[in-house]
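Tokens as discussed.
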């Protein structure tokens, strides 16, 4: 179960308006640091341990390394150089580079789920639930930049260390949607219905970064169509503007 600790923070975008990879300014790094520290505080409370700032710094600076170099071309030395820590410190907290990537992915998933739960609880209608949670989903994927495509593709592999975190988040989200939408509609939806919606969103997120860059046009299209399809599925109708090709 997720615990809310203080204000939730959205990750800043890691792409410019033309979709090019950019070096995050210090203000962006600070925002990422706030997100990472907040989620690690939650993990520490749940697991009865203490948050390590050295571990957090490795995670924070490794995100851009994975985004630029990809999984195969990234080495532990690259992560050491980016985070400015010793090899001894690195291996105190991580087994290898995949362990780092898994931790980054878990932070991303848990941070998104914190926002997801908040939007569901604050919604005043089914339309609010659908539109707000869909926006949260895309906001968090875009904010991670190109590294999210790498992590999502890795998480879809059944033998990946990332896969259980993906399955856990999707299962929790589908159950929450089923319960909360039932409050407004009185319909007892099978959770698989909402898993199907989440699988759709997952594929849309990969499509947004399909050519290795970012497309605002594809994002706007995916957001509009995803909301329209989900409203049609749950409510039996959607505004024509959500699904029809603009004139």
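Sequence:
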């Amino acid at each position: 179960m997720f615990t809310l600790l203080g204000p939730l923070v959205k990750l800043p975008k890691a792409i410019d308006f033309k979709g090019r990879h950019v070096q995050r300014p210090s203000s962006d790094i600070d925002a990422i640091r706030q997100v990472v520290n907040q989620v690690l505080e939650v993990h520490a409370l749940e697991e009865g341990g203490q948050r390590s700032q050295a571990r957090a710094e490795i995670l924070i600076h490794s995100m851009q390394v994975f985004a630029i170099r990809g999984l195969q071309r990234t080495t532990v030395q690259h992560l050491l150089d980016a985070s400015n820590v010793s090899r001894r410190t690195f291996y105190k907290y991580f087994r290898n580079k995949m362990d780092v990537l898994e931790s980054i992915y878990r932070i991303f998933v848990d941070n998104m789920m914190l926002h997801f739960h908040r939007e569901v609880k604050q919604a005043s209608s089914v339309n609010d639930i659908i539109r707000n949670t869909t926006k949260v989903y895309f906001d968090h994927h875009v904010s991670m930049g190109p590294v999210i495509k790498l992590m999502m593709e890795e998480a879809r592999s059944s033998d990946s260390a990332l896969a259980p975190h993906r399955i856990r988040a999707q299962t929790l989200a589908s159950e929450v949607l089923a319960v909360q939408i039932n409050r407004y509609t009185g319909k007892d939806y099978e959770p698989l219905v909402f898993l199907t919606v989440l699988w759709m969103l997952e594929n849309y997120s990969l499509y947004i970064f399909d050519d290795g860059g970012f497309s605002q046009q594809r994002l706007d299209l995916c957001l509009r169509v995803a909301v329209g399809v989900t409203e049609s599925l749950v409510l039996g109708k959607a505004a024509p503007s959500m699904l029809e090709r603009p004139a």
